[in-house]
What we know:
Blueprint: E1 12-16, H1 23-34, E2 38-40, E3 44-45, E4 60-61, H2 64-72, E5 76-82, E6 85-90, H3 91-99, E7 103-107, H4 110-119, E8 124-129, H5 133-143, H6 148-162, E9 170-173, H7 177-193, H8 195-198
Parallel strand pairs: 1-7, 1-8, 2-7, 3-4, 8-9
Antiparallel strand pairs: 3-6, 5-6
Helix pairs in contact: 1-7
Amino acid sequence: MNSQINGGKGYLFIVSGPSGVGKTVLCNAIVNQFAPAVLYSISTTSRAPRGGETDGQEYNFCTAAEFEAAIKRDEFAEWAFVHGNYYGTPRQFLTDNLSAGRHVILNIDVQGAMKIRAGYSEAIMIFILPPTFEELESRIRKRNMDSENSLLHRLENARQELSYQNQYQHVIVNDNLEIAKNELIRIFSGYISCPATASQA
């Protein structure tokens, strides 16, 4: 796809939503659809890899001490301490790729999104909603990756995150994955292929 760049710079897309809403699947669909025009920004985290996660793919993994040293060097555009671990977005990755005219998609929580927006006011904000909170809880429980206490903590965080949806320009309800994916593709197609009309959406 031939992407039209806004003023020679790439667009920064922020995708947020509560845990279990399907953000990762949707973001992967966007990267597959628009590659190589859209790049996935990989966060850095101090937590250990889960399951089949690979360093440099799902996350850049490091120790807590290494992460704290990077904080002191101001290497993150945003960072947060969540569920006992550090998560952050490398600043250099955003700067280098946006300046080169490449589009970047960020899959981050609302805390990080608000920090990114403060530094990148032109960021395009997209929030993914579950059809109902009960359905969200069901999805999280089906993952069976957390203890009950951790699960309850995630659900409480989800309630708080849902209150931020009005801070985003676009909101998509992920009731049907294929419909949600097509809606997200439509949004990206507007900004990347026709920025003038997308700004009026």
